[in-house]
Design a protein that fits this description.
Length: 304
C-alpha cells in the first residue's frame, strides 16, 4: 500500500498575497503570493503559462528515468521497525551502476542486513523494500532504455505487482490526478479537481541550492484535514526553466482495509545535461489487510 504514498504537484490557482490583494477572476482557486511573485506578475510574468507548464510537468519523471542511462554510486539505507520503534530488519549497502554501450549493470560494493530482511531465497520480505528495489536496483544486464517520458504514465499494469508499479508512477509523477484501483479513496487525492476546494495554496520566491526558485505549497484548509490525502506538499521550481529541484510530501489516509501515514523528501541536482535524483528520504507507516503493517524508513543518496 505504500505504492499509494508518494507525491502530488499542483492545482488551479489565482493571484493573491499574504494578506494583501486577491484576484479570483483568472483562476478558479486563489493563491497567496509573496511580494516577489506579486511584483513579477505586475511586470508581466506569465503566471498562467507557469501553471500550465507545472500541471503538465515531465521534468520530475524524466529525472528518475534518466537514472537508467547514467552511471552512479548509491548508498542505500532501509530500516524496518516494530510497533515499539525498534529496528527489526534492515539493509545497508553501497551499489555502483555502470552504463556502457546502451546497457546498465549494477555491482553491490558492500551490503549488510539484519533480521528477516530477506527470505531463504534472498527475496524481499517487505513490500516497501521490493518497491525500493524496483526503483533503484538493477538485476543482470538491462539494455535499450532511454529517458523518454511521452506516454509512459499511461501504461496499465498486468498482474498485482505491475499494477502497483503503474499506480506508484501515477502518484509520483502525475500527482493530484485520479488513481484507478485505489479502493475507498474516491477523488480525495485529486487536488487538481475535486479536492482543490479543500486546500489553501501559496506561491513564493526562494533560493534553493544556489538557484532562484518558485515554491508552490498546498495545505488543507482548517477543518478539512480528515477529508484530504495530502497533509502538506511543497515543490521548488527553478525559475529559469521550471524544472523541479525539490519536493516535500506528507500524506495520510485511513479505511477499514488499509491506512497509511507517509512523509517524503526528494532532492534533485543538475549533472551535465541531466536533472537527476540526489537524495530521497522516506518515512512510512502503512497497513493493508492482506499484508499486515509495515513501518519503514529509508534514505537513498546518489553520486554521479
Amino acid at each position: 500500500m505504500n505504492r499509494y504514498c508518494l507525491i502530488f504537484l499542483l492545482s488551479l490557482i489565482a493571484p493573491d498575497t499574504y494578506g494583501q490583494k486577491q484576484d479570483t477572476s483568472i483562476f478558479k482557486y486563489p493563491i497567496k503570493m509573496d511580494d516577489v511573485v506579486v511584483s513579477a506578475t505586475r511586470k508581466g510574468w506569465d503566471l498562467q503559462g507557469f501553471i500550465r507548464r507545472v500541471k503538465n510537468d515531465t521534468t520530475f519523471y524524466k529525472a528518475f528515468r534518466s537514472v537508467h542511462i547514467v552511471s552512479f554510486n548509491a548508498t542505500n539505507d532501509i530500516r524496518v521497525y516494530d510497533k515499539n520503534g525498534k529496528v527489526k530488519a534492515s539493509l545497508n549497502s553501497k551499489t555502483r551502476q555502470t552504463v556502457s554501450n546502451g546497457c546498465r549493470t549494477m555491482q553491490v560494493l558492500e551490503e549488510k542486513t539484519t533480521g528477516d530482511f530477506y527470505n531463504r531465497r534472498h527475496q524481499y520480505n517487505y513490500y516497501t523494500a521490493e518497491l525500493y528495489g524496483y526503483l533503484f536496483f538493477t538485476i543482470g544486464k538491462v539494455c535499450g532504455e532511454d529517458n523518454t517520458v511521452a506516454g509512459m504514465l499511461n501504461v496499465k499494469g498486468k498482474g498485482q505487482m505491475e499494477k502497483s508499479k503503474a499506480q506508484l508512477k501515477q502518484l509520483m509523477f502525475n500527482p493530484g490526478g485520479h488513481i484507478n484501483g485505489v479502493p475507498f479513496m474516491g477523488n480525495k487525492a485529486a487536488i487538481f479537481d475535486d479536492a482543490a476546494k479543500r486546500y489553501d495554496f501559496k506561491l513564493s520566491s526562494e533560493e534553493y541550492a544556489g538557484e532562484e526558485c518558485y515554491v508552490f505549497r498546498a495545505v488543507p484548509k482548517k477543518g478539512e484535514e480528515k477529508n484530504v490525502v495530502y497533509n502538506d506538499f511543497a515543490t521548488w521550481f527553478r525559475k529559469s526553466d521550471y524544472a523541479i529541484l525539490a519536493r516535500d510530501y506528507s500524506l495520510s489516509y485511513s479505511t477499514v482495509v488499509y491506512d497509511f501515514d507517509v512523509k517524503m523528501k526528494v532532492r534533485l541536482q543538475q549533472v551535465g545535461k541531466h536533472l537527476l535524483p540526489m537524495r530521497i528520504d522516506y518515512d512510512g507507516n502503512w497497513y493493508v489487510f492482506t499484508k499486515g503493517r509495515e513501518r519503514v524508513k529509508f534514505t537513498a543518496v546518489f553520486s554521479y
